[in-house]
Write a structure and sequence with these properties.
Methylamine Dehydrogenase, Chain H; Immunoglobulin-like; 4-stranded antiparallel beta sheet
């Protein structure tokens, strides 16, 4: 290619935009976000999360989760898992961390009989075990594969004979502590250590009341043991049972004993919140605004305590003194911390409520209480007067010896929002504290597991391998990096340790709060976009980052009325031939533009080069102007309380002001509904908007480039709004065909009898028509919530969807009669909720991970597969000088762990050399092969000492070479 570069000394570049700009300047450095806090209205913290999850999982007709359908789906998925998946694509998944970030943990158990063995239970990610004192974690074996069930572990105990039992589901997951987040339990299970199996002990029956909000075993708030007797905190009170002669516990609820009487003739069947058993067998049992104490667990021996108000009560008994009871009371904020020195007969308040800035359930800003959600208390086993209390914060109470009335110190024991490496940091939202000996303490929080080895003086995060992060979204870049927004764990960037992450599958948190939608731009230096709750949006390039609103958007965010879930979408093209943007080349000296000659200019997007080849020779004089199309384009959409905004400047880091246009008014797009997701068409001209009430389309985005043409409030706007029909339920995901702008796949949520997946083949028509592709018979998709979809870039009939029960696929989405669905969760992953599915649609000349698929799961972190990848196909002329001596070159497996094999086919006898480079261009290995004979060859190589990441392999013979790409993981 013969290119003539016009230097900046001979021209001036200006943007050609018609009309008058109506936006104002704003300060791009200003941030309006405070983590986990909102001051101007709206729903904050856990309440917003619970409401959003209900929107995804409830039946839209009732607003409730139908537990009958939950059990039906569970049984259907398990039955399907036993069958041969003949229709499956057969995807093989690799868990991709984060192995340095945890997730919501409500249960921790230190094994009493096996040294250094610790169990941790995630409400979203199942049961994990560590055999080295929490340094490393692995999921229990039965959590992986076709027959796996992603159990919502809420509590755990060990009996005297060493057996491990755990409860599932917690009523504390709801917005008001009343359940309903969608992490639905199914009773009590045993983890059989010798086999690795999980065995049901007491589970829901297959038929429970339709639309019941409290199926009998939809949650088990606490589980305890004394001897081999088990105690359960359930919806219908506290119950216990002993094993029979065969070591079996009753499998029906009626076989368990409720020993607590509300009146002399009526059992206490309210929701039990907590169970504590002293070393001498005495008990403290907590209900809402009520406690019971007993010197034993015998029927009718429990005495009700009075004066203990609070919607959530938790107790703790001193291991070193069975007479000392503690009671923690809250109604969102702290109501009081109490102590009894006589087994609950009399109580003293040692920390009163009403002081928000020393309240463990408050944010750093002294507001936003969450005591119905996060609540933990434990007593030092060596000192009855030393207590830790966890909520949002962590506090420590120490008895002042000799004080009368009894009192002590009340101090914060850890910080929030510090670096995880800070020894005084413990993640927000503590749910359990386990104190096995004076020096060792474990805390389970929304950030996973933390440990102190010095009696709470300092802390360490202990999440290596504890992959239970709850992601909402995932996106990938051309260099193989990927990004996800996670509940209470911000936005996590996976960069193959490019930022010095301490573990092979570690991530770096680039933005805090509750991470939601994310995006990448491959233009310029590479840009990451992150969001968090209530409309917060930021972008990061290199070492810089910040918001990029204009004045109008900044005002909307500041008002505090934005949705909890922040929805964005990005589209870009490095050659958009429909672009109406241009640069003006103003010549400061005479020159000529010769026909057929290619000239390089500079795009408005980050100074990227653009090329212009005139068809006729043009002579120019001083001051002449030539318009050159700027075909490097980006469109970025943000959903707000006022409607949908689009900017064309999101990837233009050199833009002085970011211009946003309101391309869709709230009334015409949502009309009272909630915007759930967005997707651009492949050509960027259409933006499809999924709401809680259907799909709308915003069209005409490539017809104008200013507010006059794009803003719906402008009389001269060129935008049109398309409607749709045929769907039912909350739209949770939209997939656009990368090769045909008329094809869409749409998914819907909710446990209901409605269909969950729809196709559209007229997506650009005035009114889009959707047809269900749920299937029928043995290969139909179970009626479970579906959260996202992706159309394979090389075969539009292949559709991969993320569901409440893992990943499913079809190979005949658009043609071939009745759609057949198959479970794709069998190889390398489990039936965990998958909220996001993303495929790299760039071809292999533009990306290292072409065709690779990434999953953002809500409970088990990231997964990826490159089974549909075109990685390692022929590269273009800029990458390979000549490929005539070899017909193919590939690396397998890809990705690989420690060893790989290079396969190639020589067309003739040739000397051959292999060179391998990392992403930075550094040569990491050379292999002199000598002269190889014509035909197929395979060469093995060792990558065990290489850093994880992307690599380029070059097969060379003289001046000829062939290249391919591969990824190293661990």
């Amino acid at each position: 290619m013969n290119i003539k570069t016009i230097t900046t000394g001979f021209l001036v570049l200006t943007l050609t935009i018609g009309g008058i700009l109506v936006k104002e300047n704003f300060n791009t450095e200003k941030s309006v976000y405070t983590p986990r806090s909102i001051s101007n209205g709206g729903v904050s913290g856990q309440a917003g999360y619970a409401e959003y999850m209900m929107l995804l999982k409830a039946d839209p007709a009732t607003g409730k989760i139908d537990y009958n359908l939950v059990n039906q789906v569970r049984n259907e998925v398990m039955a399907r898992s036993k069958q041969n998946n003949k229709a499956a694509i057969g995807l093989n998944w690799e868990q991709m961390g984060p192995d340095n970030v945890g997730g919501r943990t409500r249960a921790i158990l230190v094994d009493r009989f096996v040294a250094n063995r610790v169990y941790a239970g995630s409400i979203a990610g199942g049961l994990f075990v560590s055999n080295d004192g929490s340094n490393t974690w692995t999921p229990i074996a039965s959590m992986v594969g076709c027959m796996s069930e992603n159990l919502a572990v809420s509590c755990i105990t060990q009996t005297d004979n060493g057996r491990i039992f755990f409860g599932t589901g917690a009523s504390f997951e709801g917005s008001d502590g009343s359940g309903g987040s969608g992490f639905i339990g199914n009773g009590v299970y045993e983890y059989e250590v010798s086999t690795g199996n999980v065995l049901p002990i007491l589970t829901n029956t297959t038929a429970v009341p339709n639309n019941s909000t409290g199926a009998q075993l939809s949650f088990v708030n606490a589980i305890a043991s004394r001897g081999n007797r088990l105690y359960l905190a359930t919806r219908d009170g506290m119950v216990w049972a002993d094993p029979d002669g065969s070591n079996l516990y009753p499998s029906t609820f009626s076989g368990w004993t409720n020993p607590i009487l509300l009146t002399p003739t009526i059992l206490e069947e309210g929701t039990c919140l907590d169970i504590d058993i002293a070393s001498d067998g005495s008990m403290l049992v907590c209900f809402g605004s009520k406690i019971y104490t007993s010197l034993s667990d015998a029927y009718g021996t429990f005495t009700a305590g009075s004066g203990h108000s609070g919607s959530r009560l938790s107790g703790a008994i001193a291991p070193s003194n069975p007479n000392v009871y503690y009671l923690l009371r809250s109604t969102g904020s702290l109501k009081g911390l109490e102590i009894s020195l006589d087994k609950g007969n009399t109580w003293s308040i040692i920390v009163p409520g009403g002081s928000p800035c020393i309240d463990p359930f408050m944010q750093n800003s002294c507001d936003g209480p969450q005591g119905g959600y996060d609540d933990a208390i434990a007593v030092d086993p060596s000192d009855w007067g030393h207590v830790l209390v966890g909520g949002v914060q962590l506090y420590e109470w120490k008895y002042a010896s000799g004080s009368n009335p009894i009192g002590g110190s009340w101090l914060k024991a850890a910080n929030l929002f510090e670096s995880p490496m800070n020894p005084y940091y413990v993640h927000a939202d503590k749910h359990t504290i386990v104190w096995p000996n004076a020096s060792t303490i474990y805390i389970g929080s929304d950030g996973g597991v933390a440990k102190s080895s010095d009696g709470a003086a300092s802390w360490q995060e202990k999440n290596y391998g504890y992959n239970v992060t709850t992601f909402y979204d995932v996106q990938t870049a051309a260099n193989g990096w990927f990004l996800g927004g996670a509940q209470d764990n911000g936005t996590q960037l996976f960069s193959y340790q490019s930022f010095g992450e301490p573990s092979p599958k570690g991530t770096t948190e680039i933005s805090g709060g509750d991470g939601f939608d994310v995006a990448f731009s491959n233009q310029g230096p590479g840009i990451a976009y992150a969001t968090s709750q209530f409309g917060y949006l930021s972008r990061f390039a290199g070492s810089s980052g910040g918001t990029f609103y204009d004045a109008e958007l900044e005002g909307l965010i500041d008002a505090g009325n934005e949705p909890f879930h922040t929805v964005i979408e990005n589209w870009e093209s490095n050659y958009d031939n429909t672009s109406v943007d241009s640069i003006n080349v103003i010549f400061s000296a005479p020159d000529s533009l010769v026909a057929g000659q290619t000239y390089q200019y500079t795009s408005l997007s980050n100074g990227s080069p653009i090329y212009y080849t005139p068809s006729v020779t043009t002579y120019v004089n001083t001051g002449d102007t030539v318009k050159v199309q700027d075909y490097i384009q980006n469109r970025f959409a943000l959903a707000t309380s006022a409607g949908v905004y689009v900017t064309r400047d999101a990837a233009r880091l050199n833009a002085i002001n970011t211009e946003w246009q309101r391309v869709g008014q709230k009334a015409e797009i949502a009309n009272g509904a909630t915007i759930m997701c967005m997707e651009f068409s492949a050509d960027g001209n259409h933006l499809f908007v999924g709401t809680s009430n259907g799909v709308k389309r915003i069209s005409g985005l490539n017809l104008a480039n200013d507010s006059l043409g794009l803003d719906r409030r402008s009389p001269s706007n060129v935008i049109t709004i398309g409607t749709s029909s045929g769907t039912a339920g909350v739209i949770t995901g939209i997939a656009a065909d990368p090769n045909n702008i008329n094809n869409l796949i749409v998914t819907t949520g909710g446990y209901s009898t409605a269909n969950k997946v729809y196709k559209c083949t007229n997506a650009t028509a005035a009114s889009m028509t959707f047809t269900q592709i749920q299937g029928s018979g043995a290969t139909a998709l179970p009626k479970m919530p579906v959260y996202d979809a992706e159309i394979d870039y090389s075969d539009y009939n292949k559709v991969i969807i993320g569901t409440e029960w893992g990943v499913w696929s079809t190979t005949n989405a658009f043609t071939g009669g009745t759609t057949q669905w198959a479970d794709e969760s069998c190889n390398g992953m489990s039936h965990v909720p998958v909220f996001a599915v993303e495929q790299q649609h760039l071809n292999s000349t533009e990306s290292f991970n072409s065709g690779c698929i990434y999953l953002g799961t809500h409970g088990r972190g990231f997964y990826m597969t490159c089974d549909l990848s075109t990685t390692a196909i022929d590269e273009n002329e800029n990458n390979a000088t000549n490929s005539g001596f070899v017909s193919n070159l590939s690396v397998f497996p890809n990705p690989l762990n420690n060893t790989g094999t290079i396969a190639f086919d020589l067309k003739e006898n040739s000397p051959a050399k292999i060179k391998i480079y990392n992403l930075s261009g550094t040569l990491v290995k050379t292999m002199e092969l000598g002269t190889k004979a014509k035909g197929n060859h395979k060469v093995k190589f060792d990558a065990s000492t290489w850093s994880v990441g992307s690599y380029v392999i070059s097969l060379e013979s003289g001046k000829e070479r062939k290249v391919a790409k591969f990824i190293v993981t661990r």
